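Batch 3, record 17
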Amino acid sequence: MKNALAALWNRLWPLISAVSVRVKVMGMALGLVLLLGSGILWQVRASLTRTLQTQLQTESITTASDLAARAVDPILLNDLVALRRLLDETQANNPDLRYAFVIDKYGQVLVHTFGSGFPLPLLEANRLTADQSSQTLVLQTEDGLVWDTAAPIFDGRAGVMRVGISDSRLRQEINLVSGQILLMMVLVSAVGVLTVTFLTFVLTRPLRDLVEATRRVAQGDFSPRVPRWAEDEIGDLAEAFNAMTAELGRADEVRREREQLRRQLLEKVIATQEEERRRIARELHDSTSQNLTSLMVGLKNLKAICHDPRLNVQVEELRSVAAATLEEVHDISARLRPRILDDLGLPAALERLAREWQARHQIPIDLLIHIGQERLPGPLETAIYRIVQESLTNAARYSGARNVSVLVERRGTDLIALVEDDGQGFDPYRDPGDRHLGLEGMRERAELLGGKLTIESAPGKGTSIHVQIPIPPLPLGEGQGEGHPSPAGRPPDGGRWAGGEGNP
Ligand SMILES: Nc1ncnc2c1ncn2[C@@H]1O[C@H](COP(=O)(O)OP(=O)(O)O)[C@@H](O)[C@H]1O
Ligand SMILES: [Mg+2]
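Prediction for the assembled complex:
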């Protein structure tokens, strides 16, 4: 039993919980009205039936005794016409009287109120008891119940008076009352539905406002405020909600300001870093390389005028030390800030980066660049260059890859760079710690320009770094912020210094 109830509940609950509050309350109200209405209907019908049936029985007995008393004279006088009139008049005055008839002492029907033929079985249906007192029976007929009373006339010596009182008026009465109760139920239900609709509207309207506002807050919009509809708990909830969104909005503003500040600082740091690298690279070229070149020229002149072979050997050694140093300076300067990036643009700079990387690490690199002839904004070129550079450094340092590929292309209004290696890979979700900022720096650079960096890697699966940065429309003249510096400091050898391979 308990299990069956639990099973029923388990099946009903999903149905109940799936509908809105309005339907739930409406269902409860209608259910109550129906339950109460049918209870009342049943109760009223039962008590009405009981009372009216007693009434009918009494009526049957009194009518029979009355008729029996009044029938004595006509019978004794053998005046059948008067007897007949008596029955007819009584029937005319009493709508409940279904029939009446008189049986003489020999058991023959003297007069009856059945127009055409007398139903013979009725004769046997009710007889006087042995002590000649009247008796009432309930007979089941085609049109309902009939309270049939047999009353002795003149103590039974003049015959028997039979009277049938029908319950059809009683049934009509009960049906009328039932109809009124049903009508009442329908009216009460209608009023109930209207009331519930109004009440649930008043109750759920602020809740729906709250749900809508909460959704917007979840999407990061802290502006919605909900009206306080009433001075109840829901009103308190609305107020608390408004206070919460206001607080969240303030916190969000502070966060945005901080984030803005952080971005500005970061932008500045990156721009300053690039500028500083450019300055040092130029310094190394303009002053250090020139000095080393002068030194080499001096040593060459010295060798020409010196005739001591031992000294000559030493001068030659010094000259090659100076040449090697010059090469190193070129190398450092190129890695600090390749002049070629400013002068010739991203494709040339990437080609040289790839060539040198391949030569240094002995790993074949597959480089594909499809970005057209146009120069891109300076910050974008620098960001892509630095990201590819850091990716290649990581690949050389950690991956143990046998092949590396670099793809840089324009896709719609975006610039895409993809650096892939077939090395050992790593878990990109692992926190690398505070000291490893290469990947994070790449991501920051991409995001500062409104782009996105995705790292795909897993142990044993190689690594692919995908970066996508929107290409801003080129402002008149140069790129934004950090533009392409004018090639004023171009070395006299037409930029060969940046190649790092040149011996003067
Ligand atoms: N291509 C790669 N293959 C394998 N592991 C890599 C690769 N790139 C990065 N990693 C791993 O991610 C870590 C973080 O890299 P990074 O942020 O550049 O910092 P750092 O180079 O200073 O260690 C590295 O220490 C390395 O373990
Ligand atoms: Mg690194």
